[in-house]
Amino acid sequence: xxxxxxxxxxxxxxxxxxxxxxxxxxxxxxxxxxxxxxxxxxxxxxxxxxxxxxxxxxxxxxxxxxxxxxxxxxxxxxxxxxxxxxxxxxxxxxxxxxxxxxxxxxxxxxxxxxxxxxxxxxxxxxxxxxxxxxxxxxxxxxxxxxxxxxxxxxxxxxxxxxxxxxxxxxxxxxxxxxxxxxxxxxxxxxxxxxxxxxxxxxxxxxxxxxxxxxxxxxxxxxxxxxxxxxxxxxxxxxxxxxxxxxxxxxxxxxxxxxxxxxxxxxxxxxxxxxxxxxxxxxxxxxxxxxxxxxxxxxxxxxxxxxxxxxxxxxxxxxxxxxxxxxxxxxxxxxxxxxxxxxxxxxxxxxxxxxxxxxxxxxxxxxxxxxxxxxxxxxxxxxxxxxxxxxxxxxxxxxxxxxxxxxxxxxxxxxxxxxxxxxxxxxxxxxxxxxxxxxxxxxxxxxxxxxxxxxxxxxxxxxxxxxxxxxxxxxxxxxxxxxxxxxxxxxxxxxxxxxxxxxxxxxxxxxxxxxxxxxxxxxxxxxxxxxxxxxxxxxxxxxxxxxxxxxxxxxxxxxxxxxxxxxxxxxxxxxxxx
Length: 577
Fold this sequence. Notes:
Layout: E1 2-7, E2 9-13, H1 16-20, E3 30-32, E4 36-46, H2 51-54, E5 57-63, E6 69-76, E7 79-85, H3 96-106, E8 112-128, E9 133-146, E10 151-162, H4 169-186, E11 189-190, H5 196-200, E12 209-211, H6 222-225, H7 233-243, H8 254-277, H9 283-300, H10 307-344, H11 351-376, H12 379-393, H13 406-425, H14 442-451, H15 458-487, H16 494-533, H17 538-572
Antiparallel strand pairs: 1-7, 2-10, 2-11, 3-8, 4-5, 4-8, 5-6, 6-7, 8-9, 9-10, 10-12
């Protein structure tokens, strides 16, 4: 069994001499208890290419404290947390459930030791005046072994970790502030290290001392001795540094840009795969965004990728996004349902009806989540991630763009993405060559049957809805490509960048139409379910009627938005360079 814990903590660098000067009796408004002393040993594991480290995930086997066993430490969005797995009878054997959780990142590569960290910890409980423990202060003296490099490092640090997730922001701020005052007074500074494992492997610029083979310091500690006392501003700066993405060197060729974009998005896709497996907040949405962004980059770069390879990956990414979309649609519907019932219709709908609607939403969300987990566990999904990793690691990938400068390549792919918007926005309906019938999507057909007025052709309305949906997807692709180029430190020219900014603005406006369509479709499905089960359909009918009217109004406004967007893009898009 895995136990989930959220981490809300701050770290500080402090020398042994400074640690001795920490005046615990001066913590204002709190009482500092007697310390619990632990001798902790943690062995950290990763793949040969440090895939876990690259995804902000660490796996360790800890012994010597109150939480012996296997831990997975991670950062997902702004949230830090841990998964704890009870030790098996053979404590050195990694639990199968843990391996399964990580498979989207490791791709079944073996996990081998990367570091061993021994920590002498003094853990002080921080108790408020009401007797409730709000935090713990950990003073750590660390000796670490980089197993692969054969290097030993040692340092000392402090951590303040909140003890209760239910603390208010005011209580949390008070606990951090009170303890920080005495730490800064002793000379501590906010740490920029994301985790002990990063410092053990020499991946940050912290004050760790690297030891020679005889155990003596290789470097003097003069730099540490020169540190001045820092204000609380250093804490904010450190948190900002930890939260920011590493700055990449600007690529020099089009091939470099393409590889960089695909690598970044693939690694992010793998990271959010892990987050979905542990049910982290917003993870389904973020994984779907990365799958769509990667597909958009491949599609916009199609002139520089072998057609068969690009088309195959695009189709497989589309299948992934579709599976994630079903779960995301349930999340969107749930968010809108709560907003409607807790705001607009509060008091108009009975308690029983509210409970029935929320129960229907929870059941549908659970079904969609199970479908996503089945998809993530499939061999096809792991093969997709494996193929994507192999893509940007292949030195021949994107070689058609090797002769272009980074900026010329960026201009080319952005032009393709913007041209796709114009084509989708002005496209004519597709007609089946055999039947002569106009092709429409299943969702478009369902919506049109409910929305079409008496004198209106449902097929024409379905075609119109599909047209808007396709145009919006092309607009979103521009946004994804623009963001990917930005992360690769390449600018596609002022005019194209301005055209892309227009696409972002219109995409946000058209997003409300899609959300409205999702909610209308969800309410129609629930209405049918309530009819079969004999539940009260008044609340569903009330919500559905208002949603249909809102969707209809948005559909009527959309042509003007699309027309304005096409005009704006055509005005900015250069005919040639």
